[in-house]
Amino acid sequence: MKRISLILVLAILAQMACRPALPDEVPLPTKICVRTQHHTWPIPNAMVYVKYNTDSFPGYDKPPSYFDASFKTGANGHGCIEPVPEGRHWLIAFGYDSLYFPHDVYGSMRVEISLTYKPVLDTILYISE
C-alpha cells in the first residue's frame, strides 16, 4: 500500500513539473495613439505625458516626473503608447510649431480606456499657443 501511495505521489509531482510556468504579467491589449496637430498641421516630435487614473486636470506646470508615462510623436506627428491600464487618464502634449508665433504649443485631452468597450484609442490631440 505504501508503495502504491509513493508511486501515485511521484506521478502527480512529475505531472506538475512538466507544466509550463505561469506568466509573471498578463499583457493588456490596450493602446493610445494620437496625432498632435496645430490648426491643420501635424506637430512632429511633440512630447506627450500621460497621467493615469485621474479625473483632475494635472496642469501644464508639472515636471515630467509627476506623470506616469510619456512618449514622443514621430516626424508625422503620430505616436502611440501601449499597454495602458484601464481607467480615465489625462494626456498633456508639448510641441514646437515653426509656422506660428509663439512657437511653443501645448494641449491636453482626457481619455478613457476600457478592456470591454474601448481598448484602443486613435485620435487627434489638438495643441495651440
Note down, in words, how this protein is organized.
By secondary structure, the protein is mainly beta. The chain has one helix at residues 2-17, and strands at residues 31-38, 41-42, 47-51, 69-72, 78-81, 87-96, 104-113, 120-126. The strands form two sheets. Strands 1, 2, 5 and 8 form a four-stranded mixed β-sheet that branches. A hairpin with a 2-residue loop joins strand 1 (31-38) and strand 2. The longest helix has 16 residues, at 2-17. It starts with a helix and ends with a strand.
Low-pLDDT parts are none
What is the number of beta strands?
A: 8
What is the beta-strand fraction?
A: 35-45%
Overall pLDDT level: 88
Radius of gyration over all CA atoms, rounded: 24 Å
Identify the overall geometry.
Answer: rod-shaped
User: Number of helix segments?
Assistant: 1
Topology:
Blueprint: H1 2-17, E1 31-38, E2 41-42, E3 47-51, E4 69-72, E5 78-81, E6 87-96, E7 104-113, E8 120-126
